[in-house]
Write a structure and sequence with these properties.
With 468 residues, the protein is mainly α. 48% of the residues lie in helices and 0% in strands. α1 packs antiparallel against α2, α3 packs across α7 and α13 packs across α17. The protein is flat. The chain binds heme C (4 copies). One heme C (HEC) binds next to α4 and α6.
């Protein structure tokens, strides 16, 4: 199935253009002219000129600009352009890796959430819940670390993207269909399974559409939301209308009710993700590659090579030599708070084993072995370490080790998530060896980039430990 373009014009980022500006300017000019005339007339009739008129106009225009910012736009459903601006930033930082810039989505990977039909069917509450609760078992994690202002901002941002010919659809969230799940099962397999997966698990089963049989989706989507989606389809995506003579499959309404009842009947029996099937088998790099492609590729790139300034390489020879399996599992389960590396406690140990087997199976020239002693502790001088850090590390890792968040080219080595996962010796060995093929070079000794001594490095590590 080829992905066609959506019909809506490319989203105009709010902020690049001030909406309704012409009218606003006209009003302001009119206002200025009126004051000008008033002032002029006042001069004729009343005598002394009002010397403060310029200030008054400036003041008045400031007030109008403020009002304009907060003027509700009907299509924003009560949100303001200010919110949309914040939302756009939040979206780029946390969502665009998967949902793409502007939210256009990627078939087989993450749905379009700026889609005309999606936005017509999804209430603010649906979007809010999808963000807060996530879709367990899929890369759509619950985004509990976002503030309320950020979540509302994202909703405002999505609603601010111009949409052509938006349909008006009333969804009744309380409506329940009492179809027949026995009849629904074969209908689902015939018409929906090819894209949404035989088990309704969507992308994680290799489908081109999302997991409409997963508990996370079924918990937020009402029967009517599913029904209207099947009726309208989603323009510009492989999700077509399936209902009636104009639909892809000429399904009758009752047949769609049967499919919905079937999906609901499986709600409790569907495990979150394919984890249950992989209990005691040996680590499987082929399965690991699939899990990697679903859950990690958006940021760590194909084959895990990473992207400078965005996400580190996790198939790097030196990284894999220094990082234990435990380190990788812990990093994924706990995430790195404050970075795009969100916690994925939902990925089972079996899935993690497969992913690690995959990373470790990737061919790497001149493999190395580096023993790391996690019990080793360095007790250097934090003040000296701070100065050394500022000279040799801050340019890439940020003034306080904030990493990418501060525009750095390297990860956030001063952040709590990294520091709680990495032992002193892990940090030491990384500084000693560098990471071949990346901007992270060896820094110790005469062959190192900075000829640092081991005690310099001990000072730097001691400093890093004081940041939090
Ligand atoms: C790591 C990839 C990833 C990131 C990052 C991500 N999402 Fe998702 N999102 C997904 C996937 C995959 C789905 C579909 C899951 C399923 O149901 O199979 C999804 C589903 C959704 C849905 C429901 C869409 C629908 O059609 O019902 C919304 C809304 C959403 N995401 C918003 C967001 C927002 C807002 C952010 C940023 C705070 C975000 N997502 C970050 C991967 C991601
Ligand atoms: C040709 C592939 C294809 C078929 C067949 C298909 N879908 Fe979809 N469906 C998709 C895609 C792709 C999306 C997500 C659209 C996007 O990327 O934005 C989707 C989205 C949906 C959604 C919205 C999910 C959400 O997270 O909000 C529902 C509900 C849905 N489909 C139900 C069905 C049902 C029921 C059937 C069978 C009658 C069906 N689909 C058949 C590809 C398909
Ligand atoms: C020229 C830029 C640059 C400089 C200077 C630099 N680094 Fe790095 N560092 C990186 C990059 C890039 C990575 C991640 C490599 C990748 O993308 O796979 C990294 C990775 C690391 C890691 C591993 C982080 C993790 O998440 O596992 C540590 C620890 C580290 N650097 C410490 C230091 C210290 C200490 C200094 C100063 C002595 C330093 N770096 C100087 C660019 C730099
Ligand atoms: C939405 C983007 C994103 C996704 C998806 C993602 N990561 Fe990350 N990951 C990052 C970022 C960014 C960092 C570096 C954070 C920092 O600054 O410390 C990171 C760091 C890591 C590290 C530490 C690397 C090091 O050098 O210490 C590992 C291991 C890792 N990720 C594994 C995974 C695995 C496995 C998956 C899939 C299950 C995954 N990540 C999914 C963005 C992501």
């Amino acid at each position: 199935m080829k992905k066609s373009k959506t019909d809506a014009p490319e989203p105009e980022p709010p902020g690049s253009k001030f909406e309704g500006l012409p009218g606003f300017l006209l009003a302001l000019c009119g206002f200025a002219v009126a004051i000008g005339i008033g002032v002029g007339a006042g001069r004729l009739v009343k005598g002394p000129a009002d010397e403060n008129w310029r200030e008054r106009i400036t003041e008045a225009s400031k007030v109008m600009v403020e009002q304009e910012k907060h003027r509700p736009r009907p299509h924003l459903l009560g949100h303001t352009m200010e919110q949309a601006r914040l939302g756009r930033e939040t979206f780029s930082a946390f969502c665009a890796a998967c949902h793409q810039e502007g939210g256009t989505g990627k078939v087989g990977f993450a749905p379009s959430i700026r889609n005309r039909d999606f936005l017509a069917l999804a209430s603010d509450d649906f979007i809010r819940k999808s963000i807060r609760m996530g879709r367990p078992g899929t890369p759509m994690v619950p985004w509990s670390q976002l503030t309320e202002a950020q979540v509302e901002g994202i909703i405002a941002y999505l609603r601010s993207i111009p949409v052509a010919h938006a349909p008006q659809v009333e969804i009744d969230p309380d409506r329940k269909f009492a179809g027949d799940s026995q009849r629904g099962a074969p209908l689902y397999q015939t018409y929906c399974a090819a894209c949404h997966g035989a088990g309704g698990q969507g992308y994680i089963e290799g489908g081109s559409g999302p997991g409409i049989g997963l508990p996370g989706f079924l918990a937020v989507a009402s029967d009517d939301y599913i029904f209207q989606t099947v009726k309208h389809g989603r323009i510009g995506t492989p999700m077509r209308s399936f209902l009636g003579a104009a639909g892809l499959a000429n399904l009758r309404e009752e047949e769609v009710h049967d499919i919905i009842t079937y999906l609901r009947s499986r709600e409790t029996e569907v495990p979150s993700g394919p984890s249950k099937t992989a209990v005691v088998k040996a680590a499987d790099p082929v399965a690991g590659e699939q899990h990697f492609n679903v859950n990690c590729i958006a940021c760590h790139q194909s084959g895990g090579v990473g992207k400078t300034g965005f996400a580190p390489s996790i198939r790097n020879r030196d990284f894999l030599a220094i990082a234990s399996d435990e380190f990788i599992v812990q990093t994924v389960h706990n995430g790195r708070p404050g970075t795009a590396m969100v916690a994925r406690p939902d990925l089972s140990d079996a899935i993690m084993k497969d992913i690690i087997a995959y990373l470790r199976s990737l061919p790497e020239a001149d493999g190395v072995k580096v023993p790391v002693d996690p019990s080793k502790k360095y007790a250097g001088d934090a003040t000296v370490g701070h100065a050394k850090y500022a000279t040799y590390c801050a340019a890439c890792h940020g003034q306080k080790g904030e990493g990418y968040a501060a525009g750095g080219s390297g990860p956030g080595i001063g952040l709590s998530g990294f520091l709680s996962a990495a032992s002193d010796d892990y940090i030491f060995q990384t500084i000693k060896r560098g990471r071949v093929g990346t901007a992270m070079r060896p820094f110790i000794g005469p062959t190192g980039l900075a000829n640092l001594s081991e005690s310099d490095v001990s000072d730097i590590i001691t400093y890093l430990r004081t940041i939090n």
